[in-house]
Automatic annotation (TrEMBL):
<dbReference type="GO" id="GO:0005829">
    <property type="term" value="C:cytosol"/>
</dbReference>
<feature type="domain" description="Peptidase S9 prolyl oligopeptidase catalytic">
    <location>
        <begin position="439"/>
        <end position="645"/>
    </location>
</feature>
<feature type="domain" description="Peptidase S9A N-terminal">
    <location>
        <begin position="4"/>
        <end position="198"/>
    </location>
</feature>
<protein>
    <recommendedName>
        <fullName>Prolyl endopeptidase</fullName>
        <ecNumber>3.4.21.-</ecNumber>
    </recommendedName>
</protein>
<dbReference type="InterPro" id="IPR001375">
    <property type="entry name" value="Peptidase_S9_cat"/>
</dbReference>
<dbReference type="GO" id="GO:0004252">
    <property type="term" value="F:serine-type endopeptidase activity"/>
</dbReference>
<keyword id="KW-0378">Hydrolase</keyword>
<dbReference type="Pfam" id="PF00326">
    <property type="entry name" value="Peptidase_S9"/>
</dbReference>
<keyword id="KW-0720">Serine protease</keyword>
<dbReference type="GO" id="GO:0070012">
    <property type="term" value="F:oligopeptidase activity"/>
</dbReference>
<dbReference type="Pfam" id="PF02897">
    <property type="entry name" value="Peptidase_S9_N"/>
</dbReference>
<dbReference type="InterPro" id="IPR051167">
    <property type="entry name" value="Prolyl_oligopep/macrocyclase"/>
</dbReference>
<comment type="similarity">
    <text>Belongs to the peptidase S9A family.</text>
</comment>
<dbReference type="InterPro" id="IPR029058">
    <property type="entry name" value="AB_hydrolase_fold"/>
</dbReference>
<dbReference type="InterPro" id="IPR002470">
    <property type="entry name" value="Peptidase_S9A"/>
</dbReference>
<dbReference type="InterPro" id="IPR023302">
    <property type="entry name" value="Pept_S9A_N"/>
</dbReference>
<dbReference type="GO" id="GO:0006508">
    <property type="term" value="P:proteolysis"/>
</dbReference>
Length: 646
């Protein structure tokens, strides 16, 4: 399945070409390639290889570094210049830290003469012009990183000069999460911006205006972007008469002239357009741009919609166009991205569901041309009779929790059931085609469930904030409520109910292990946080204090310790079988979390049903190749078969 030639080769447009990065059995590490739109429309496009990562690995110290693709950053010299230069990012073993090299798309070679080269680090970088970078990285002999391990300083680096001579243009504090800068072109306007991420959810935003870096007078918890001459502001909390979760737009010059000198946003209400107003069941998930439009991806009870606004640049006015037909498909996840903001109002539209294979279409945001289905993934498992339903559970405090139930045939009775969750960092769990789950689980008549618990972003900022810090237990109560609802409905039983989560979801299921071990027949805990006393001392952990709290503050440790699985283990209790997985090259969540947990459970006498798998590469994603992914997925399902079928 993972190496299937039938996979959709998703593309992005750069100049006249459409680029794709491809993995299969013949290209284990991957192939960076391109084609034309005319060729892409064919069943088998003619691809031109731009960069062969497998060949590069073989030629570079015999593959010792095991390079993993992490994308490119383009030098944008305007709509009339064919893109040629990118900054290519390669990771050793899938880590977040990357080596960055300048690459020529015309010669298909790394740039040699006076090339920009950035050593392995968690860097922020963009081109300011063809001979200048805005760069945040780990600079030699400088205190250039935050406590979270991300850049603290932004420098302007000129081509042909030593990095040590790069000029500092912006800096933050050691306690910031990260600091960065960017320079970009937006519908004929040029912006140079900087930010200080004070916490994971709060930032200071700066724009360079007439040669001076100016801080915008905004709440620290907003998200900021631009469209032409408009400043777009997404709210996490109420601001004046605008509700948390709203998206507002104001002409940038008017904002600078007026609001940067006042504190009451409602004084500018006549100049503001409300592009999105949330409702209890509706939230804004993302936005994308075309030449004349902004397209919003909206969730309505966790089902996607695409809403279009048209911008009149002459009158500086927004006009609502309405909902795209492409988003009206039932329990389906639909998202969009602009193809070329300089040329047209066309979108890439992605669509799938648990029983609906992925499709990739070209759609006009103005709906002035027919939609074109470019690629359709064939069924990769037998989805005949597979049902996708939304159900509700009631959490401990009375809150209604939605969940997706996926099963084959009639409503199941007492079957092995896998419950997946995350519940953090504003991340929404929406329907998606999962061929591996289909083959390994649904085809066997088992049930698969995804819980939309608090802490996620399914219902906007308030849904996320309802499970922050001292309210973390709300997410866990929600997840437990879904599990109990499945048992009460007779779909499964506690001995046949498993839960699975990774990263923050690993912390979630780690708490299921220690809070309600009697509820579960098996637990899979992937790349997890588990030791919440020391999480801020490990790798990027300090950046998540906005989510969990600071364990070094006694008052906060009082509540953090209640959801620290490592500390909540009790040798007098009985625990279900558990599989912990991690990666040696995970430089985001330290593998020590899983290692320590397994060691402690073994020392307590639970070793017989405590299992552990550590991949030597893969980073926080757990695997770097399809072979590694196939192995870890097989391990996961074999573990479930072993313990849930008894």
């Amino acid at each position: 399945i993972l190496d299937s030639k039938d996979k959709i080769p998703y593309v992005w447009k750069r100049g006249q070409y459409y680029y794709n990065f491809w993995n299969d059995a013949d290209h284990v590490r991957g192939l960076y390639r391109r084609t034309t739109l005319e060729s892409y429309r064919k069943e088998e496009p003619d691809w031109e290889t731009v960069f062969d990562l497998d060949a590069y690995n073989e030629n570079d110290q015999g593959g010792e570094n095991k390079w993993v693709w992490k994308g490119t950053t383009l030098l944008d010299e305007g709509p009339d210049v064919e893109p040629r230069i990118v900054l290519m990012k390669l990771s050793k073993g899938g880590a977040d830290a990357v080596v960055i090299r300048e690459f020529d798309l015309l010669t298909k070679q790394f740039v040699d003469e006076d090339a920009f080269y950035i050593a392995e680090a968690k860097s922020n970088v963009c081109f300011k012009d063809k001979d200048t970078l805005l760069l945040g990285t780990e600079f030699d002999n400088e205190d250039s990183l935050t406590e979270s391990g991300y850049p603290r300083i932004v420098k302007e680096w000129k081509r042909g000069t030593p990095l040590s001579e790069a000029k500092t243009v912006f800096e933050g504090e050691k306690t910031d999460v990260s600091v960065g800068g960017s320079y970009y072109r937006d519908h004929g306007y040029f912006y140079e911006t900087y930010y200080r991420s004070l916490t994971f959810y709060t930032s200071e935003h700066y724009f360079k205006i007439n040669g001076e870096i100016v801080k915008l007078n905004l709440p620290e918890d907003v998200e900021v972007s631009t469209f032409a001459d408009q400043l777009l502001i997404e709210l996490r909390k109420d601001w004046g008469s605008y509700d948390a979760g709203s998206l507002i737009s104001i002409q940038f010059d008017k904002f600078l002239e007026e609001h940067n000198n006042i504190d009451v946003i409602d004084d500018l209400k006549s100049d503001i357009t409300l592009l999105f107003r949330p409702l209890p069941e509706r939230s804004l998930q993302s936005k994308t741009e075309t030449k004349n439009c902004i397209v919003l991806t909206v969730l309505d009870n966790v089902v996607s919609q695409l809403i279009v606004w048209l911008y009149d640049s002459e009158n500086h006015e927004w006009k609502l166009r309405g909902e795209l037909e492409a988003g009206k498909n039932g329990i389906v996840d639909v998202s969009a991205s602009g193809i070329d903001v300089d040329e047209n109002d066309l979108l890439w539209v992605y669509s799938d569901s648990y029983n609906l294979p992925s499709s990739f279409s070209m759609v006009s945001a103005l709906e002035d041309a027919p939609s074109e289905l470019l690629k359709q993934l064939p069924h990769q498992y037998d989805a005949t009779g597979v049902n996708v339903e939304q159900h509700e559970a009631t959490s401990k405090d009375g809150t209604t929790i939605k969940y997706f139930l996926v099963y084959k045939g009639d409503l199941p009775t007492n079957v092995p059931t896998l419950l997946y969750g995350y519940g953090g960092f504003e991340i929404s769990l929406t329907p998606g085609y999962q061929a591996l789950t289909g083959v390994a689980w649904l085809e066997k008549g088992f049930a698969y469930v995804v819980a939309n618990i608090r802490g996620g972003g399914e219902y906007g900022p308030s849904w996320h904030q309802a499970a922050l810090k001292e309210k973390r237990h709300k997410a866990y109560e929600d997840f437990e409520a879904v599990g109990l609802d499945l048992v009460e409905k007779g779909i499964t039983s506690k001995s046949k109910l498993a839960c699975y989560g990774g990263s923050n979801g690993g912390l979630l299921v780690g708490n299921m292990l220690t809070r309600t071990p009697e509820m579960w027949g098996a637990i899979i805990c992937a790349v997890p946080l588990l030791d919440m006393r020391r999480y801020t001392k490990l790798l990027a952990g300090a950046s998540w204090m906005g989510e969990y709290g600071n364990p070094d503050i006694p008052e906060e440790w009082d509540f953090i310790q209640t959801f620290s699985p490592y500390h909540m283990l009790d040798e007098k209790r009985k625990y279900p079988p558990v599989l912990f997985t991690t990666s040696t090259r995970d430089d985001r969540v330290h593998p020590a979390h899983a290692r320590k947990m397994v060691k402690r459970m073994n020392d307590m006498g639970f070793g017989r049903t405590t299992h552990y798998w550590e991949n030597i590469e893969g980073g926080h994603g757990g695997s770097s190749t399809n072979d590694q992914k196939a192995y870890s997925e097989t391990l996961k399902y074999m573990f479930l078969y072993t313990y849930l079928n008894k």
